[in-house]
Amino acid sequence: MLGETYDIQPSPRKLYFLFTSEGPKGLIEKVVMFEPLEFNVFNLAFGDIQGQSINDSVISNNQDFVKVLATVAKCTYDFVEKYPGVKIKITPVDEGRKLLYNTVFRRHHRVIGEKFEIRGFIETTKQPYSPEKNFDEFELQHII
């Protein structure tokens, strides 16, 4: 699933990872963050670095979408090596990303399922992942 990825720079505790997107829009600094929500549960946040903050709703359109998503996956795999058994929540920030994340999970759920138990949320109801459904949020439980 990973394919070609960008070089990543993990923080010492691997709670965030930096990388640079390269394309027609130039060099765009990006970050993948794992924010603690509760014990052993983290939110995956991802976006462009703008000043001292992350913009997770910007559409960079740097024509490297597949490589960027593969890099986010690489960061996630590195993160669970450091924190085995964690749950990772993925909440799309808008309808476009919700559609995108459903498409990514639909295409890659078998490979993702080798390392994670995938669950989806429709409204507030958690259920096992099914590629036939469109979920509002996702949860990955790292399989030890």
Features:
single chain; 144 residues; alpha+beta; nine-stranded mixed sheet; 2 helices
Topology, pairings included?
Elements: E1 9-10, E2 16-23, E3 26-38, E4 41-50, E5 53-55, H1 65-82, E6 87-90, H2 95-112, E7 116-122, E8 125-128, E9 137-142
Parallel strand pairs: 4-6
Antiparallel strand pairs: 1-2, 2-3, 3-4, 4-5, 6-9, 7-8, 7-9
**What is the number of independent domains?**
1
Share of helix, binned = 25-40%
- Shape label: globular
Number of strands: 9
- Strand portion: 35-45%
| Biggest sheet features | 9 strands, mixed
Question: Helical segment tally?
Answer: 2
Give the mean pLDDT.
91
Q: What would you call the structural class? A: alpha+beta
Give the H and E element order. EEEEEHEHEEE
Give a structural overview:
The protein has 144 residues and is of the alpha+beta class. It has one domain (9-142). It is 25% helix and 40% strand. The protein contains two helices and nine strands; from the N terminus they run E-E-E-E-E-H-E-H-E-E-E. It has helices at 65-82, 95-112, and strands at 9-10, 16-23, 26-38, 41-50, 53-55, 87-90, 116-122, 125-128, 137-142. A hairpin with a 2-residue loop joins strand 4 and strand 5 (53-55). The two termini are 20 Å apart.
